[in-house]
Input
Amino acid sequence: MAKYDKLFEPVTLGNNVQVKNRFMLAPMCDDSANHGQVIDQQLAYMESRAAYVGIADTGYAYVNDSGIQVDGQLSAAHDSDIPGLAKLAKVMKKGGAKAILQLSHAGRDSGVSNANGERVYAPSKLKFSWLNYEVDEMTEADIEQVISDFKAATHRAIKAGFDGVEIHNCNHDLLQQFFSAISNHRTDQWGGSLEKRMAFPLAVQKAVKEAITESGKPDFIFGWRISPEEKHGDQVGYEINDMVAQTKKVIDEGIDYLNISLNLSADYNNSSRPSYDVQVKGTTESFPAYFQKVVGNLPIYIGSNVLTADDALAAVDDATGVYVGRELLMDPDFVKKIMDGNTDQIINTTTIEHLKEVGLPAGFVENYADKDGSGRMVSYRNGIPLPGLD
Ligand SMILES: Cc1cc2nc3c(=O)[nH]c(=O)nc-3n(C[C@H](O)[C@H](O)[C@H](O)COP(=O)(O)O)c2cc1C
Output
């Protein structure tokens, strides 16, 4: 067996769907949709990035107009979005990848919704230093509405021809805001104890599952993305074992893969090692190894700071699959080069000019290209809290 063959083994998802290899295009919002609508630049970009991976994930698409975090996010909030989404699904599937639409609601971080004159809401009415607008506490009706909006968006993904959806239960989005003791101070059925704080993510999961069942498509893939823990200095939103407890429940109800969002190194190209190697405190196990015990045979995808074929191979020591984000922005042929034995040709530094040449939509280049010419990419949007591990 050649060194990197393991990366090209098929993966069997929870619903028995076969995926052609262990690579996933990480979900990355490209800041380029036109008021939520897919544009041609995005089609070309996604076609090239999806060409060789087993699973291709879109960036987060909002499920209603109150949940928009950044300009250029995709919309899955309206039936009128379906034709554009259908074009996107089609190009993503061309090379044999499973096309996944990631669904989200940004809760309190819905700055674009605020600018659009929408009411912004979250589990609790709390002030955060980065928010310069008022956030309402969600009413029971708001909560029921968002749950049914996730369901409706899943139906749209199915109609648009996607192979699956992935729920953005991570990166400080609304589902995580409910789960976090820092963000959720409610005393009703949606907050308080650990059980009650997980009620909203579980209700969303149930609604998405219902949509899949109603569609009569058991092959439709249900992915679930988590941030394994939430800690800010001394403040704890939730510990890893809290997320383990939530994940067990979600698996009981039925998902087809787990995607673990891990840290983005602040200094990407100089990071000494991929963040998935970080050990769970008090154990000698990595985050994915720790989760693998919980999920049994269910595939787990991990990644972060994967820049080389060896980084990717190391990821599948501990997990089923590896997601690749920024490296696939810089080098659309990253996976192909590993497949063809041309690892010496992998490009993993960049400049703005290079990013334009490799077909990144303009919004992406604008927001992420390193502007000092040093050949590095900006880690993430300034001002948006990072997903992460302490
Ligand atoms: C430009 C950009 C946009 C991102 N957008 C999303 C997103 O929409 N949804 C999500 O779950 N993660 C998002 N992420 C996080 C990535 O999926 C991934 O976890 C992270 O970039 C680390 O992987 P990498 O080091 O291979 O880039 C984004 C990251 C980047 C760089």
